[in-house]
Design goal:
The longest helix is centred in the first third of the chain and has 19 residues. By secondary structure, the protein is of the alpha/beta class. The protein folds into 2 domains: 185 residues, Rossmann fold (3-Layer(aba) Sandwich), CATH 3.40.50; 135 residues, 3-Layer(aba) Sandwich (Rossmann fold), CATH 3.40.50. The strands form 2 sheets. The protein has a 7-stranded parallel β-sheet with strand order 3-2-1-4-5-6-7, with helices on both faces. Strands 10-9-8-11-12-13 form a 6-stranded parallel β-sheet, with helices on both faces. It contains 12 helices and 13 strands. 38% of the residues lie in helices and 18% in strands.
Amino acid sequence: MTLRTAVTCGTNFGGGGLGQHLKLVVENEDRANPGNVTCYCSRSNGDARCIEVHDKSRFWQQAGKVARYSAGWRSFLACDRFDRVTSLEIGKFNRVIGFVGQCEQTLTRARQLGASHLALHAVNSHVDNVRHLHSLARKRTPLESPWLNAAQAAKTRNEYRCADEIVVASEYTRQTFLERGFNPDCLSRIWLIPDSRFTSTAETTTRSTFNIVYVGAVTVAKGVPVLIEAFANLPNPDFRLTLVGGYTSPGMRRFIAEHLAKDSRISLAPGDPLPHLLEADVYVHPSWEDGWAYAAAEALACSVPGIVTEDTGMKELIEEGVNGYVVPTGQWQPIVDRLKYIANNPLRGFTPPQYPE
């Protein structure tokens, strides 16, 4: 019997952390059932398994304009629009796999069409845990509104109820679901592996500076203000901080501009993170919450030691004192302490993490 599978996610296939996650899921499904996997996404990048989902209706264009100053409503409208259009386009499949926050109506429609198994990839920890940690981040640094608003949270909880299986990318995420009463038999695990281009070079370089790198969205929720505060308490003129990413709010734009003007050692460098990782002495991921954190995994793959917070799934790949350190979430002093230590005591026993088969 041929089993047909649909995978849906409103992102760029293979691009960015979410796009890499999507591509990995599609490839895993295609290996298990060759030629019977269809991917619904916003951009296919030429992959023949993909169907691009677009909605250019006037309503959504106007709604987008109204919501442009609210990260939460921008995120909700983009996810809900993708979900609505996909639910209208999706056909009959035996299995349908969605990504959290953008597939409530698609999963419901798939069940009506006879799908026997609905799976949901939880990119972040349980939505209530995310909401709690983001509220702490905003309380500490009230610069911008969160990307996860009440409407998006409600949509996500409905998706939890629709799904037969919830797929997590870390033990950290799994525990947040278990703490809220989810049946462990309904939770499964996927290992997210960095692209093979992220690897250490054989060359040894002698640098006159100590290079600290962060990769990702330059936002409050990702802990960037905490990292900048930590760096301000490292007055060594040979230290450098590179933020590889872009801001998404006027508040963060002003915040970053102010600190770039005050401290010439800090730079903002959107674009490919690989060149910066190859020049890095340490990678810092100060996020208030991350179900996994592809960027931190990419740094480790490049043999760059990492400092990550307790509320990120990446912490399970950190061997204390071998390839990095885990620090308390939302605190700058532990980051300072570890950066000082690594600057004076490079982690010479470093080995990139190994992933289960």
